[in-house]
Structures are given as structure tokens and as C-alpha cells.
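Q: Hi! First time doing this. I have a protein sequence and I read that you can turn it into a structure. Is that right? Here it is:
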Amino acid sequence: MNTESSAAQAPEPMEEVPSTAIASPSPAQVSGNSVVRLQWVFGLVALAALVLSALLWQKLGTIQEQLARQSADAGTQASEARASARQAQELSMETAAKLAVTEARLSEVSLQRTQLEELMQSLSRSRDENLVVDIEAAVRLAQQQAQLTGSLDPLLAALRSAELRVTRAAQPRLTPLQRAIARDVDRIKATALADTPALLVKLDELVVLADELPVANAVPVARNNETIKRKPDETVSSWWLRLPSVVQEEMRKLVRVSRIENPEAALLSPEQSFFLRENLKLKLLNARLGLLSRQIESVRSDLAAASVAMGRYFDTSSRKTQTASALLLQVRGQLKALELPRVDDTLAALATAAAGR
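A: Yes, that's right. Below is the predicted 3D structure, encoded as C-alpha cells:
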């Protein structure tokens, strides 16, 4: 220390000293100078560390303040966002309710518009269009009445009335309709319908005959055979001679061999035969009811089933079965004449006239 302080002072003129007079530093002085330097270095390092610690602490405090401020701001923003979300949810609910009310009003307005358009169309419809609509309604109603009653009079009356109205209208575009009505009238006049009461009578006769029809496996009724008895003018000896042949003939009659086409008919018991007759009568009665209600397809199916049962389970060689089969065949043949003629030409002409409005 003293050496450095003396060296730091102002330089003085030094006298030349002989080299022999300058003394070299001792080892103790050198080690002391090193320790001092190390202390200065450690002090500087500690001071720098202290300054750095102070700066870091100050920066950390600043960061903590910023984080606290940011967290407070984030909490405030989150509460504001929740409030905004609640308001948005309420606003969306109100908007949905208003939208539902608007859609309901819009549907009501569209319905009113449709009704108004239909009303305007009906009001703006011309006389010819009204005539076409009225004729079509009358023809369809007459066709339904004809189907229910089985008479062509309502249909003919409706077509003649329509023809008269079209003639009075005197419109050129209704000329095809007039020609179509004339064709349908001619076709209806040329149609010959079957006599429904006569068909009903024939069905009643078939119901009565069903109880008398012999089944295919019926045993023939034994006839009273008087051959085994002795005649008054016959002697006892001649009767005894004739008795073995008569007994042999009667024994042969105990066994009957016949041909049956359908095996199920041979297996019918008497109880089943009773239900078979009742089923046949039910088929015929159903056909009668279908004929009264103008259900021609149902009548055909019932009569076809009755014909199949009659040919399968009953004796076709019997006269009563043949009579019933012939009567059933007549009824089935006359069903074709029960179909009412259609007025397709008139309806097509009406549709064309209505589309040309």
C-alpha cells in the first residue's frame, strides 16, 4: 500500500542510483499484494452481484406488479365477457322468439294469400270453366250412383243433361267434349245389363241344392231287395235252391269299388261333410251379398271357390251335382254383363277442357 501511494505521488527527479543499491521485493511482500488484489476482486464481484440482485429484485417486483395488473384486468374482462355473453344469450332468446312469431305470421300470411288467390281464381273463372266443372261433378256423381244401384239411368240422365248444356253454350272449344259425350251415350245405350233379380233367384236355388248334393264318398242308398223272400207261388224246395245264389249276390254288394279322382274327398267324415255343405252355402250367400252391393270381383271369387269345391268334394256323376254346376256356370257367365260401361271419353274431354283454361 505504501509503495503504491508513494508511486502515485508526483514524480520527483530521481537520482541515479546504482544498480547495486536497488533491492528486489521479498516473498512476503509479493504474497501480501496478491491477497489484497484477491480481496479487491472479491469485493468487486460481490458488489456486482449485489447490484445485479438489486436490479433483478426490482425487475421481479415490476413483473409481479404487471402480472397483478394483468390478472386484475383479465378478471375485469372475464366479468365483462360473462355479462356480454349473458346479454347475448338473452338477446338470442328474444330474437328466436321474435323469429318464431315472425314465421307464424308469415305462414298465416302465406295461407291467407293462397286462400285469396283461390278466391280470386274462382271469382275470375269464366262461364265456360264453371260449366266444365259442373258437368264433371255431375258425371262423376252419376257414375257413383250407377255403380251403387246397378242402373244406367242416372248416368244416361247426367250425360244427356251435359250434352244439352254444352249445346246451349255454343263454344267452339267445347266441341270435343260434345263428341265424347255422344260416343259415351251411344255405348251405354248399346250395353245390355244382366237381370240382377234373376241372378239372385239362381243363387237362392244353388243354396237350396247345396243340402241335396251327394259327396264323392257317399254310400248309395240300399234298395229294398225282395229277391231273398219266397214268393207266394214258389215252392219251398225251389226257394232253397235259389237261396245260395241270392245270398252270394248280396255278399258281393257289401263291397263297393269306385274311382275317386281326389283322395281328400274319400277321407271326408260325415261331420266334415256337414261343414263342407255349410261352407259351400256360405260361399253362395257371400256371392249373393256381393251381388247386392255391386262388388263384382268379390262375387267372382266366391263363385269360383264354390265351383272348385263342388267339383272336388261332390259326386260329379250325380244329376243334382250336374244341375248345380250348370246353374253355377250360368251365373258366372252372366256376371260379365253386370259390369257398367265407363265414361272415360267424357272424363278425358272434361280434363282437357279444364286444362285449357
